[in-house]
Design goal:
Length: 433
């Protein structure tokens, strides 16, 4: 095995493969190290891949080349109680046309495809290669120690793309200690369902797909569930805050089973067969969680840098990871040209990030993680919304109240949601979103 490269990337997820692709195309001799048997083997997500303009620079119509499942033409937010749901659905013709707004994918296929593209461009992919430490000389990173025999590999710059747990950033003292309230855990249940059944049940044709986000029925835990249609399977993906889950004493599988037993969900999934379960952590702290990004000979990208935007409306991680990987690649190419891998030279990466939508979006929505700590959103408001809507549509033979009276009647007499609750949440949401 070759032991010396011009750059090393740790982790062949979206951030790592994008970094390696960019560097290889820019003439850098780069090693892409992945602990799994192949890129994507260990990876999972919800998942909707959001449109990625940065990939369009590398691939002509990548939606025609990459292993995509369906393009997402229908997106809905659904408020759910134990016996009802209300669906606010957006079905937009624009989302049904190339380049499309998002796709469903399977990570083992998608990640493997992107890594193979990096290899085609000249990167050296080394699978089954777990990095356990960095090699430092005079305070500068000059390589990595892997779990292989004689596993040292050297390069003047190492890019961390190892994902959420970011052990290397921790070893370098570049990130804060994890706070359970800023971390989420996601658990996915993949259910096989024939394509025709999915098309009929969700009102789809051709390769159209849906992304449905649900609020409610979370058993008092801060979290929600999302449903995505693949070609011939459906992903039910639950995400909840680790701190809140820990305090509740409820298990992930209890929560998941509770969602699957909800009557409207049950109707959608009737006849589907469980294919697999998987789980993974998510950095949900947003802007406040971004670590120091650059050190001498070292850069941090993707989830390891907390580049994941969880506003409660969208979960954007893959697009941010990919974009940050590409920007890290650009900084390494410039460092090679200048023969300077110092922190000062690699600081170009920090500047590129700060100029990009990745940083700007996380900054714009920096209060969104706080909004997701409002327990009323998960526990009280779905019941409130469904109760109001039921009263609007329910025919009783009694004279109807107008909307203002209905809301006032509810907040004054029902007791579950007060006027102060509503004012405080609307104010927090206004500032966060
Ligand atoms: C349940 C869930 C649902 C999600 N839903 C969505 C969604 O719908 N849309 C979206 O855009 N994002 C979603 N995300 C977020 C998204 O998955 C991440 O933001 C994205 O995967 C981050 O990419 P990454 O390359 O930084 O890290 P990862 O994808 O985690 O990749 C890290 C890679 O590094 C490898 N690795 C780790 N440690 C080492 C080591 N020591 N040595 C060698 N290799 C190593 C891993 O095997 C892996 O291949 C979701 C995440 C979860 C968990």
């Amino acid at each position: 095995m070759k032991r010396s490269f011009e750059a090393i990337v740790v982790g062949a997820g979206p951030a790592g493969s994008a970094a390696a692709l960019e560097m290889a195309k820019g003439g850098v001799d780069v090693a892409l190290l992945e602990r799994g048997n192949f890129p994507g083997e260990k990876n999972m997500f919800g998942g909707m891949l959001h449109k990625m303009p940065s990939l369009e620079e590398h691939f002509d119509e990548y939606w025609n080349q990459a292993p995509l499942e369906r393009h997402v033409s229908k997106k809905a937010t659904i408020f759910m109680t134990n016996d009802a749901h209300v669906n606010v659905c957006m079905d937009w013709e624009d989302f049904d046309k190339p380049p499309y707004n998002g796709y469903t994918v399977f990570r083992p296929r998608w990640d493997n495809w992107l890594a193979e593209e990096a290899v085609k461009a000249g990167a050296t992919l080394i699978n089954r290669c777990t990095v356990e430490d960095l090699i430092l000389k005079n305070g500068k990173v000059v390589g990595v120690k892997t779990l292989r025999d004689n596993g040292e590999i050297y390069a003047p710059v190492v890019v961390s793309a190892e994902g959420v747990l970011s052990f290397l950033a921790d070893k370098m003292g570049m990130r804060k200690k994890f706070n359970p309230s800023k971390m989420a855990v996601g658990c996915k249940c993949l259910l096989d369902m024939p394509k025709q059944m999915i098309d009929d049940r969700f009102g789809l044709v051709r390769d159209q797909g849906v992304a449905y986000e649900y609020v409610g029925v979370s058993m008092g835990v801060r979290g929600g569930v999302a449903l995505y249609t693949n070609r011939d399977s459906v992903s039910v993906n639950m995400v909840c805050h680790i701190g809140s889950l820990g305090k509740s004493g409820i298990t992930l599988y209890d929560m998941m089973n509770n969602y699957l037993e909800q009557p409207q969900m049950k109707k959608l999934l009737n006849g589907a067969k469980l294919a697999e379960y998987s789980a993974h952590a998510i950095p949900e702290g947003g802007y406040e969680m971004i670590p120091q990004l650059v050190a001498d000979g070292f850069l941090i990208t993707g989830d390891a840098a907390a580049f994941c935007n969880a506003t409660g409306i969208n979960l954007e991680g893959i697009n941010m990871a990919t974009h940050s990987g590409i920007l890290a690649g650009k900084a390494v190419i410039a460092a090679k040209k200048n023969k300077d891998y110092s922190k000062g030279s690699l600081d170009l990466y920090r500047k590129l990030i700060q100029d990009s939508y990745v940083y700007k979006d996380l900054k714009t929505f920096k209060r969104a993680p706080g909004l997701l700590h409002d327990d009323r959103i998960f526990q009280k408001y779905p019941d409130f919304a469904l109760d109001m809507i039921k009263k609007i549509y329910h025919i009783t033979g009694e004279p109807k109240k107008n909307m203002t009276m209905l809301v006032l009647d509810h907040v004054l007499n029902n007791g579950k949601v007060s006027l102060m609750d509503l004012i405080s949440t609307v104010w927090t949401a206004w500032r966060a979103l």
